[in-house]
Write a structure and sequence with these properties.
Radius of gyration: 32 Å
Shape: elongated
Largest sheet: 6 strands, antiparallel
Number of domains: 3
Helix content: 40-55%
Structural class: alpha+beta
Strand order of the largest sheet: 6-9-10-15-12-13
């Protein structure tokens, strides 16, 4: 390496570190989670690595089918000491510096393509000054997936130009690493196959082969040099399209059932259009046109390699993401999954700016057509807060204000597409084409960093998913469990629909519990589980013990309560140290999982005898309930073998009362609560997140059930009272 090249490489590293430092100033402000449940998932994987020392993906002590393990392994070095707040802050400081390492493979890719040192430094730097760098503000796989993909592009391009099995196998190894960063990036294997096949055909054509001779020559080169490589890829594809496809997670649907229809084509066009918009149109069209222009026999080998790899990457990645969003994204554009193609376009743009040959006119038309078609129907949704899946949606607000409506905004975008293509097609008649190319470079240099700054501004403008500012440090509040049980403590949580009418608020409660406490490592008695079946109906002994020393339960959980010692109480929840074996002190029957009584069905509170109890005991149970009826009083009857009374709950009101029950030794006492009235209430939050609709019949809502410590010996227990 010459001194000039060393200076250029050093400049690139310095610029990348400068960008990483600047971005870290923003990511360091992030003090709360934003993307659920993705951030929780990857953080728990990291904690499992730190606690177990195993690199295998584990959640709640069980192996999970997760390939994206590279990022959790990376940040696991910050976890394990019980200080989640410090670990969270350290990961956010590291993220931007990891993500900006993508500048190195992009720089090397530009150098391989013949771009000069200055242009290569420019494209490497700009590749990490893109708006998607804002994803480093979160605990997401994109942090490592972006640089891994860029290294994969470099190795695939190298393999295509070198035409050897050794280079192919090196590319496959890099593809494997990229897949460990994000399973979506297995797409690079398909890119390698398509690019190798295309390059062999072009090489044969360059040697003068035509027609059948062309196919035979390409096939001969294929067998001699690449049969082993392609065999490896085909076997991997066969495995993933079969039973092993579950390792692809959500992308398994694309691997198993890919259907090219008009809907998918239109959605793919919309994705291309949004990517072009993010790259300010002019740089996108020039870069893509240059890539297409290199897919010809007469192109130099290095440029042709990037051309076939770039075109394959853009085409296949767009189809993959469109297929995924068609099934899981409600048909919206999710540019978070497509931005990996940006470095290819930027390298091509730099190559076009330094090339003597201007792309042929029709190469501008090929990308312009899908972009224009995509803009005709693209949904320009204005989101209140930053949309992680669609970072470029932040531009929609300005477009809609400028154009006054969605229809006019689409028309404006189509017009901008036509103007940008016309500038590139006929602008050379008025100014030198090199000036046009430099103009496109300037547009990209200005627009992409400005979009990046705007992305961070939008991120911090609105409160996060949990309704709190993303800059508000709440770790000291939420990590109370770790503080009470210590770094070595292990806690099982029993999730319950807290604030059940506000489903997302209840979800956020348990997300905070698990996210901010390393000690919470398992779940037991999830709301959707039939909790009654977890216990012996006669003794209350749990069918299966939990795997930790402590159990966390919310005070409003009316499903059951385990016998044991209370360790701490905070934020409405108890940490218990259950007795061994685990057993219920009491449980309810005949209710929904969130405490509503079922229509015309008595709800029962079953209080179990204690081990070693030798005589009947009078126990005292505090019950709080409320009525959903805002117009009429609701009659409630409560009875046990010691007590029976009736009362009315005022419209929209509640009752709080103590009930006594006799518990015989070795058995149980039952309290019955019933009402003849039924109302429609919101949907069951343990079944669906859609709440606020009146489609579930219920009686009253049990808000609290608490068993007092007092015990009064009795001579005997009698049958339930029938009147009083």
């Amino acid at each position: 390496m010459t001194r000039r090249e060393l200076v250029a490489a050093g400049s690139l590293v310095a610029l990348a570190l400068l960008i990483g430092w600047a971005v870290s100033l923003a990511t360091a402000r992030v003090e709360n989670w934003f993307v659920m449940t993705d951030e929780l998932y990857y953080q728990r994987l990291a904690i499992a690595v730190a606690q177990t020392g195993s690199l295998l993906p584990q959640i709640h002590g069980e192996l999970v089918a997760n390939v994206n393990q590279l990022y959790p392994v990376l940040i696991s070095m910050f976890y394990g000491d019980g200080n989640v707040v410090a670990s969270f802050d350290a990961a956010h400081l590291l993220n931007p510096f990891v993500m900006v390492t993508a500048a190195i493979p992009v720089f090397l890719l530009a150098r391989r393509t013949g771009v000069g040192l200055l242009g290569s430094v420019w494209v490497g730097t700009l590749a990490v000054a893109v708006p998607w760098i804002v994803l480093s503000s979160f605990l997401l796989t994109e942090v490592v997936a972006y640089p891994a993909f860029c290294w994969g592009l470099l190795m695939v391009t190298r393999a295509v130009s070198r035409r050897s099995e050794a280079a192919d196998l090196a590319a496959i190894a890099m593809i494997g690493l990229a897949a460990l960063a994000r399973v979506q990036l297995l797409l690079l294997a398909a890119v390698l196959l398509v690019a190798v096949a295309t390059e062999l055909l072009l090489a044969a054509a360059a040697d003068g082969a035509r027609g059948r001779e062309l196919a035979r020559a390409a096939a001969g080169a294929f067998v001699r040099r690449r049969a082993l490589t392609v065999g490896v890829l085909v076997l991997a594809a066969a495995a993933l399209s079969g039973g092993s496809s579950r390792l692809l997670g959500s992308y398994s649907v694309t691997a198993e059932t890919f259907h090219l229809d008009l809907g998918l084509v239109q959605l793919a066009a919309e994705h291309v259009a949004i990517l072009a918009l993010g790259l300010a149109l002019l740089p996108f069209f020039l870069g893509v046109a240059w890539l297409i222009d290199q897919v010809r026999p007469s192109a130099p080998a290095a440029e042709r390699a990037l051309g076939v790899v770039g075109c394959a990457t853009l085409s296949l990645l767009t189809l993959e993401v469109a297929s995924f969003d068609q099934r899981f994204g409600a048909g919206l554009v999710k540019d978070r999954y497509l931005f990996y193609a940006v470095p290819v376009v930027l390298v091509a743009l730099a190559a076009a700016a330094s090339a003597e040959r201007w792309p042929r006119w029709w190469t501008f038309v090929i990308p312009a057509v899908p972009v224009a078609i995509g803009f005709v129907t693209v949904p320009l949704v204005a989101y209140e807060k930053f949309n992680v899946d669609s970072p470029l949606a932040m531009l929609n607000d300005g477009l809609l204000r400028l154009a006054t409506s969605v229809t006019w905004a689409r028309a404006l975008l189509v017009l901008a597409t036509v103007v940008a293509v016309q500038v590139l097609l006929v602008g050379g008649s008025f100014v030198p084409r090199r000036v046009l190319a430099i103009g496109a470079v300037v547009v990209a240099t200005v627009c992409l960093p400005l979009e990046t700054v705007y992305a961070f501004e939008r991120l911090f403008r609105v409160n996060g998913t949990n309704g709190l500012p993303i800059t508000l440090d709440q770790g000291g509040v939420f990590n109370w469990i770790d503080r009470n049980v210590g770094p070595a403590g292990r806690v099982t949580m029993a999730p319950y629909p807290v604030n059940s009418p506000q489903w997302w608020a209840g979800q956020a409660y348990w997300w905070d519990v698990e996210f901010w406490n390393e000690s919470v490592v398992d779940t037991w008695g999830a709301p959707r589980d039939p909790w009654v079946e977890r216990f012996d109906p006669h003794t209350g002994v749990a069918v299966e013990n939990g795997r930790t020393r402590y159990l966390l339960m919310h005070s409003t959980d009316v499903r059951f309560r385990l016998a044991g010692r209370q360790v701490a109480f905070d934020r409405g929840a108890y940490i218990f140290e259950p007795v061994s074996p685990w057993r219920a002190a009491w449980l309810t029957r005949g209710t929904y999982a969130d405490g509503w009584t079922r229509p015309h069905t008595p709800a029962e509170i079953v209080v179990f005898a204690e081990p070693g109890q030798t005589e009947p005991l009078q126990r005292f149970v505090f019950v709080a309930a409320s009525s959903p009826d805002l117009e009429r009083a609701r009659l409630v009857t409560v009875s046990s073998n010691l007590d029976r009374w009736q009362t009315s709950i005022a419209p929209g009101g509640s009752l709080e009362r103590e009930v006594t029950v006799c518990v015989p030794p070795g058995g149980s006492g039952t309290i019955s609560i019933e009402t003849p009235f039924v109302s429609d209430v919101y949907r069951d939050p343990t079944v669906t997140a859609l709440t606020g609709e009146t489609d579930r019949p219920a009686g009253i809502h049990l808000r609290t059930v608490a068993l007092a410590d007092e015990r009064v010996p009795l001579e005997r227990c009698q049958a339930a009272l029938v009147g009083r």
